[in-house]
Amino acid sequence: MRIAIDAMGGDHAPRAHVDSALAAAAEWPDTQLILVGNPEKIQPLLGSDAPGNISIEPASEVIESDDEPVKAVRRKADSSMVVAGRMVKEGRADAMISSGNTGALMATGLLVVGRMAGIERPGLAAMFPTLDNRGLLALDMGANMDAKPEQLLQYALMGSIYRSKVHGIAKPRIGLLNVGTEAAKGNELTKAAFDLFEQAPINFVGNVEARDVLEGVCDVIVCDGFSGNILLKALEGAASSIFKLLREELTSSLKAKLAAAVLKPSFRRVRDRMDYNEYNGAPLLGIKGLVVKGHGSSDAKAMKTAIRQTRTAIGNRLIASLADEFSGK
C-alpha cells in the first residue's frame, strides 16, 4: 500500500512527518511512504540511509494555516497538499495524510480527489478516547456548518461502516448528539434525523447528551459540523485545563509534591488513556479516495498513529465499502 504524506503541513513540519515515516517504514516494510514537499528540507532529515520504502515527491509550494482554503487549493497547484491529493486521484497513492489547513484539506478532497457518488456532503470524522477504551467516532467535526437530516443519516451510515471496517466492531452503536435523551428533544434538524435513524439499517441507540459522549454509551456520535466542532474544541479545552489545574495543585507545596510522586504512575496512565496522539487521524468520509486529517500540532508519535489508522482503512477496503453502500450495490 502507498500513503502520501503532506510533509509541509502542520506545526511541526517537516521534522515530525519525516520522523514518523522513518518509524513507520521500519515497523511496516510493506507500506510505501511518500513524503510530499520540498526535497531540500526533507532529504537532510531523512539522511543518506533512509529505508527503501520511503520516497520524496517534490512540491514547490505550501498552503499556510491562514490561507483562504478554496483560493489556496486553486492557486497553489504545486503545494504539498494538492500534489498529495492529486496522487490519490491519479491512483499513485492509496491514501493521503495532512496536518495542514483543515479547510484547504476539505477543499482538496472535494476539488482534487472528488466527492463519492451518492454522498451529498462529506463529513470529517474524529476519534475520541472513552472510559471503556473502545473509543468514539464523531462526525461531522466541522466540514459542514449546516446540515440536512438526510446528510446526518449519511454520516451515520458512513460512521457505522468505518467502525466496522477499521475497528472490527460487528454492530456499531450509533448515537445522535442532542440536548436530551428523549425522542422529542432537540431542534427541527435532530427531530427529523431521529425519525430517519430509527428507520435506517443501523444500530441506533437514540439521542446522546454531550456529557455522556466519553462514557462509552455509543460507538459513533452524529451531529452537524457546527455542533461537532464546538464539541471537539470543548473536550480538548476541558482536558487541557484539567491537567493544567492538576499540575498546579500537585506542585503547590512540599506535601502535594510528595503525594504526586506516589501517584505519578496513576496520573501517567490517565494521561495516556486521554492522549489525543493515540487517536490521531480523522478521515474525510464521502470522498472518492482516502483523505486523512492529522491534528495541526501532531508530533511524530501522533503522525505514526495516523499512518497506522490509514493502513488499517486501506487494508479493510474502507473506500470501496462506502462506495458500494452508496451506489446501491
Automatic annotation (TrEMBL):
Q: What does this protein do?
A: Catalyzes the reversible formation of acyl-phosphate (acyl-PO(4)) from acyl-[acyl-carrier-protein] (acyl-ACP). This enzyme utilizes acyl-ACP as fatty acyl donor, but not acyl-CoA.
Extract the SUPFAM superfamilies matched here. Isocitrate/Isopropylmalate dehydrogenase-like
The UniProt gene name for this protein comes to plsX
Q: Which family does it belong to?
A: Belongs to the PlsX family.
| Keywords attached to this entry | Acyltransferase, Cytoplasm, Lipid biosynthesis, Lipid metabolism, Phospholipid biosynthesis, Phospholipid metabolism, Transferase
Please give the Gene Ontology molecular function terms for this protein: phosphate:acyl-[acyl carrier protein] acyltransferase activity
From the UniProt record, list the reaction(s) this protein catalyses: a fatty acyl-[ACP] + phosphate = an acyl phosphate + holo-[ACP]
Protein location:
Cytoplasm
By what name is this protein known? Phosphate acyltransferase
Could you give the subunit structure recorded for this chain? Answer: Homodimer. Probably interacts with PlsY.
* InterPro entries found in the cross-reference section: FA_synthesis (IPR003664), Phospholipid_synth_PlsX-like (IPR012281)
In which pathway does this enzyme or protein participate?
Lipid metabolism; phospholipid metabolism
Q: What is its EC number?
A: 2.3.1.274
Record's HAMAP family?
PlsX
